[in-house]
Specification:
mainly beta; 6-stranded antiparallel sheet; two-stranded antiparallel sheet
Length: about 100
């Protein structure tokens, strides 16, 4: 099945402790049905100091389920994603406005 949400998309969180927060998808894991969104679902990870990095408590964005995310359309509102054919190419479009993403 084609991916409705992809890396680089601006999304909003629909449910959970981060409801209403917006961010950009930095990584998608289709097998797990999850995505990592920049600045959302943050957790503190303790890391040991090494030659290349400073140790300490480092905040890290954890994966969030794709069903809890919605794409933000051109108007800044959450929208569902659909697919349609334009000529020979398959494109994603926003269901609220009908605009191609």
């Amino acid at each position: 099945m084609a991916a409705k949400l992809r890396k680089g998309d601006r999304v909003i969180v629909l449910t959970g402790k981060d409801k209403g927060q917006q961010g950009e998808i930095t990584q998608v894991m289709p097998k797990d049905n999850k995505a990592v969104v920049d600045g959302v679902n943050m957790a503190i990870r303790h890391t040991r100091q090494s030659q290349s990095s400073q140790g300490g408590r480092i905040p890290k964005a954890m994966p969030i389920d794709l069903s809890n995310l919605a794409l933000i359309d051109a108007n800044g509102k959450p929208t569902r994603v659909g697919f349609r054919m334009e000529g020979e190419t398959k494109v994603r479009f926003a269901k609220t406005t009908g605009d191609v993403i």
